[in-house]
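Dear Dr. K.,

Following up on our conversation at the group meeting, I've run the structure prediction for Calcium-transporting ATPase from Meleagris gallopavo. I'm pasting the input sequence below exactly as I used it, so you can double-check it against your construct before we proceed with anything downstream. Let me know if the numbering doesn't match what you have in your notebook.
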Amino acid sequence: MTNSDFYSKNQRNEANHAGEFGCTLQELRSLMELRGTEAVVKIKETYGETEGLCRHLKTSPTEGLAGTAADLEKRKLIFGKNFIPPKKPKTFIQLVWEALQDVTLIILEIAAIISLGLSFYQPPGEGNEGCGTATGGAEDEGEAEAGWIEGAAILLSVICVVLVTAFNDWSKEKQFRGLQSRIEQEQKFTVVRGGQVIQIPVAEIVVGDIAQVKYGDLLPADGIFIQGNDLKIDESSLTGESDQVRKSVDKDPMLLSGTHVMEGSGRMLVTAVGVNSQTGIIFTLLGAGGEEEEKKDKKGRFLNTSKQQDGAAAMEMQPLKSAEGGEGDDKDKKKSNMHKKEKSVLQGKLTKLAVQIGKAGLVMSAITVIILVLYFAIDTFVVKKKQWLPECTPVYVQYFVKFFIIGVTVLVVAVPEGLPLAVTISLAYSVKKMMKDNNLVRHLDACETMGNATAICSDKTGTLTTNRMTVVQAYIGDVHYKEIPDPDSVPAKTLELLVNAIAINSAYTTKILPPEKEGGLPRQVGNKTECGLLGFVLDLKQDYEPVRNLIPEEKLYKVYTFNSVRKSMSTVIKMPDGSFRMYSKGASEIVLKKCSRILNAAGEPRIFRPRDRDEMVKKVIEPMACDGLRTICVAFRDFNSSPEPDWDNENDILSDLTCICVVGIEDPVRPEVPEAIRKCQRAGITVRMVTGDNINTARAIAIKCGIIHPGEDFLCLEGKEFNRRIRNEKGEIEQERIDKIWPKLRVLARSSPTDKHTLVKGIIDSTQVEQRQVVAVTGDGTNDGPALKKADVGFAMGIAGTDVAKEASDIILTDDNFSSIVKAVMWGRNVYDSISKFLQFQLTVNIVAVIVAFTGACITQDSPLKAVQMLWVNLIMDTFASLALATEPPTEALLLRKPYGRNKPLISRTMMKNILGHAVYQLTLIFTLLFVGEKMFKIDSGRNAPLHSPPSEHYTIIFNTFVMMQLFNEINARKIHGERNVFDGIFRNPIFCTIVLGTFAIQIVIVQFGGKPFSCSPLQLDQWMWCVFIGLGELVWGQVIATIPTSRLKFLKEAGRLTEKEEVPEEELNEDVEEIDHAERELRRGQILWFRGLNRIQTQIEVVNTFKSGTSFQGALRRQSSVTSQTQDVTNISSPSHVSLSNALSSPTTTLHSPILSCYISLHYPDTGIWITLCTVDALHHSSQVNVNLLLEQ
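The predicted structure tokens came back this morning:
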């Protein structure tokens, strides 16, 4: 059903049922198209406040829908389901058609059809002796009739190849859709039904639901904001505006599907779902166009086909930008180089290799055809001096067609069309298996890139640790308790304040529930740090529920939610006497700086001076942090009722606090992590911890995990220090500075998401090591998006991760566990090795088959391996071998070697040795059989047989031996690093065993019963025994080859190497597109204008000119500040006689409210007597505001 059918059906339903609800689908749709105050006015006029709208939709703002099945069904019928019909998958027929587009297959089809046509054409000169060697030989009528069989057999085998390819594509597509739907089913959203807060799949959301939105959510439907605090939304996916939009009930209550919640929390009334939501409407408009854009949007990776399944769940609505005007043109330019990530390493190497092999094959097949034709022509017309008679033409043409078919067959065997197949099978198989290892792969090639990873930047909380927070130490009333204190020893006043501060100043969705199993640990729901604090309240034999019931969420006066800049959370409540009280909690060193009092042993506030604070940091906080605890400070402040404080002036509000207590929260390291990290280090992967935690805590955990070992030379930095070291005087990041730091950096603490992005980008762009670093990053927060996108492989947390993080990632860790990343590395390396195994096998067959066909054709006028036989060999080699070798399960041994890196060749020396070694063995035997086989087996020779002669035993033995050798060589190909035991772990791979035995069985059938179509004549048992015996020789020969030391064979070339040169242009192309992603935009917004040397001087020149011409220079400055183009004309301007460049007067630091004047450049223009000094004022975060000081000296 197309979107439009879906839509019209809904409209019909709507007409029938409009009476049941107070508003129709159409009304709601038009309401959702309004923004800001317009929408507020419209809601007031039409429904009288949001409560009125809730009544119209028969729902309650606090209790939600009743949730009865009948009611939900009715809503789905009238207002539609929250589901956007996906694009139809390709049908099997379409896939077959695509497989038929293969050039080699087309050539074969043409050859086969010509061959068929000619075999049915009986020329008049058939019996004519004059037509060369056309007749003669043992040919009876029946045989002549069978001439069509070869053409038919070729066509049949082409059909086989096509069906197999199409089936593979189809199952791949199906797997991928399954994967997608699994990602979607896992996407749940929190709604209130019947007064209970429950999580339901996104597709189950209906109009009238009350949904709870919180930081990091991706909104699954359109709705109206009915209550909440400090909610900020990133609507860039719909509007292209990167600024966050603040939502409030009275100013802008419209929440749109597909947008991201960047801060705050609240409740919304769902008003439009599925195709009727804003995102759905756009999708309907875009139709297929949207999907095309989507393709380009997804990092140029494998298309995430059913991306659109769950309404808004995964909308990256980039295409909309062009609607804003101005962006449309460069959109097209960008499309051409929209592949954000360069081709994956493996694909790059494979493409190159396939092209090289293809060229060689083409040359060989051309030579084969030319030689055959020349030999025939010379033999017939020169040596035997025959005339070309008109009646003989068809006979000759038939010969030429035969030669052509042989040539094409050589080409077919030479071109490894199985390569892409092997890669696909290997990746698809790995992806399926990785699901069991808790890796949900969203982009196929991320799996293979992971095998080359050289660095992993991991979060701490939840990835390296269990994310089960418990308070284990506390500092209350001047006493440092090393374990949970007895409630009686804490002053009653302090205890009451503490319970209120924790219960009220945390998300009400965070709860501690009774354990699922008897004797288990209580379940923690919601934010884990808050769970730890609530657990502390319970440990103090208190209860937080009564406090929350007394002050429900609606009564909270103002909430400052936690974000990565504030690093604290505060909640204001109105006291019964009209005054206000604010509770705060946050990172201890940050909150303590804002405290001016602290509760003493009696529960009374006493003065808390900076020196008391320093002492407390030394005696309480550092010892806690060194035990690997997170320290959280809980504080409060009272405000008078009049005048009411200015709540928006955050800096004044969050000061002058009174500290209630400091607690140390333990988040134990996951037991399996140290071992996993040790494996990574052994495998040549550096693990770095990037965390928002205190540096002492981070260091303690890093030591426990084994990221750092005491006595090693490493760096642990805080975000501030990191930024100081990597930026120059102007506040720009310099790659050379990063290069000095990253190789030794192991822990980055108190870091912001921007720091994480900077570090990842710095490591990836670094040129100081000869291999480009391949970086994996884990992230869970909304703000980790840029870093996850920038990394080669982004891992998002399946449990703790926000939707935004999952959207930006390549792999989702369904158990949030670091050791699953190690599994991903293993699978990635395994994919690479599987491809190498397949190549080693395939190339041996290629070399042998091509040489046999080529030499055979040149010497005996006829390829010993017939076209159909070659196609069968091709099938074994390509399809079956890729299945067998690409499905080898990974072993721990893969983690004992260093990553291969980008410029290690696909085919190593050892593999080259194996390929050539086995080729020599096979060729020797085949040529022996070809030229003296008939004497050995005492049979008729099959050489120089006439055109339609019956199949000979001689050539059948050659074909059979050839296949046997391939089968046993397939076992050899299982090892590529020169291991001796090729049977090692063979039974762990049932697919391999099945395929080898299956091929063997089919081979028996072909030889014994294949007859004319397969050009086979049945063999006796002893002949079979010889064939198998020669095949078994492969295994023995494999051992012989393994004995030759590779180091001696210097002359062997490697193949399939990616050279640096070829990568650079690609990367540079990508840089342009990549550069301006959001994080970058944030970093560069202020600097882009002023940190461009040319512009700087142009500014001077503009101002001088203005002065000369006497026009208002205010205008010039205003005009200049908007100039970012570097294409201005810098001619005919008097150049300054004196230019002095002065360094910044002091390096920009980030102390609050202390703008620093940095003067960069002074120019003196003698003809006007003007000195100009350009200065920038660096306020907080270097948001370079610009003052141009014009120092006029007359």
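Two things stood out to me. The longest strand covers residues 222-234. The chain has a mean pLDDT of 75.

Best regards,
J.T.
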